[in-house]
Amino acid sequence: MREVEILIIGGGIAGVATAYYLTQTGHEVVLIERHEIAGEASGLNAGTIWANGWGHTPDLETTLGMGSLEIIQNLQLDLGLPVEFRRSGSLKLIRTEAELIYGQQKVRELSAAGYPVELLDARAVRSLEPDLASSVLGALYSPFGSNANPVLTTRALANLARRHGAELLLHHEVTELQCLENGAYRVMSVLPGDDEQLGHIQARTLVLAAGAWCRKLGARLGLEIPVYAVRGQMWSTEALPPRIFHCIGALESELAWHNDPYSDEQTPRELTHRGGQRLTRHLYGRQTYSGEIIIGGDRQINVERLPDTAGIALNHQHASELFPFLHQYPINRTWSSWMPFTREHRPIIGRIPRFEQLYILTGLGSSGFEQGPMAGKLLAEYIHSGVPAPLLAEADPVLQVK
Asked: Do 237 and 81 contact (CB within 8 A), yes or no?
């Protein structure tokens, strides 16, 4: 049996960031991933970063967002790693009077808290996005909105971790997980292939960073981890000349969730469906370096992994209402992934109670790409020092994991 100091399960952006920052302080780190790096939600998202600035008194959400923005920016500008980062600004588009009233309220609240978010009128927003529909009344604009290639970004962090000594074991499925009497953790993994290979690793410190799969991993240790697999789905056009210049969202769903977050004791807040009934439309996306316009929307629980054709079609229609030129471009490809939501959209980051040296990072919901790097850095600092950053009190597993 192989013995290691720290074992991380999960090769998404949060797991590889944790590995990278642990190696920065000299720790021996092994990371297990059942697929490729960025093979799940960390590589299948839109690559949008909905940052609003630091504000007067940054809370955990602000710190995770702006901290991650600075990390991703640093990868490209300071380390020279091509992750297609661009601080484009972001627009949340407004189409109804009710959305306009809500947008005015949001800007007042954000401005009072020190965030440089503006409410643009129809003329101003169309000067930024000339192809917008005439029905758009305005938008919430944030100058800190950014975007990057999620696969390149996640793999850049993974490569940095590897360069600093981390070992990445890919295509290793965890089949057994035990806490031993001495407080260490025994993990058995299988490497699929023509001749399946079994491997045993014993780790003094274990980190669960497997997104929505943390619930199943926790169950192997007798834990109830309240993270839900929510399906997000996306579609894209073929490569086009530049037509969309910002991170794009619609205020429609945010207003609907503000009025009614649609949740119960077993369901996360802010989903687009309850059971099989649609409750609201949700939209976000951007145009990539390659020219693809990628748009996402629905958030559903207790459904199959494959994209829903009707939901994709409705999302395409929604996007075409905002950008009429999209009517002439068919959907080129579709995909989906599982996002790790908690009921109250509160992440779970820290040490799990009643266990020695067992840590978790999950529950970032639809914000995994834009918050994962800083979440990994904060967790790595906690593991190294033994002292959590005060902000992590908002994500303490003591309050959520049973």
From this structure: no
Rounded Cα gap, residues 35 and 329, in angstroms: 33
**Percentage above 90 pLDDT, the chain:** 91
User: Do the beta carbons of residue 104 and residue 119 sit within 8 Å?
Assistant: yes
Say yes or no: 71 and 16 in one domain: yes
| Total residues belonging to the chain | 402
Indicate the number of domains in the chain. Answer: 2
Asked whether 225 and 355 are in contact (CB, 8 A), the reply is no
Write out pLDDT tens, residues 177-221. 999 989 999 999 887 654 455 678 999 999 999 999 999 999 999
User: What is the residue type of 6?
Assistant: I
Q: Are 220 and 373 in contact (CB under 8 A)?
A: no
310 and 380 share one domain: no
Question: What backbone torsions phi and psi does residue 186 show, to the nearest 5 degrees?
Answer: -110, 120
* Domain shared by 286 and 195, yes or no: no
The values of phi and psi at residue 381, to 5°, are -65, -35
pTM for this model (two decimals): 0.96
Q: Of 306, 325, 341, at which residue does a domain stop?
A: 341
pLDDT digits (tens, 9 = 90+) for 353-364: 889 999 999 999
Whole-number Å distance between alpha carbons of 92 and 221: 42
Write out the residue range of the structural domain in which residue 106 sits.
Answer: 90-143+228-341
The Cα–Cα gap between 54 and 114 comes to 8
Q: At what angle do helices 13-24 and 368-385 cross, to 10 degrees?
A: 30
Sequence-distant (6+) residues with CB within 8 A of 349 are 360, 361, 363, 375, 378, 379, 392, 395, 397
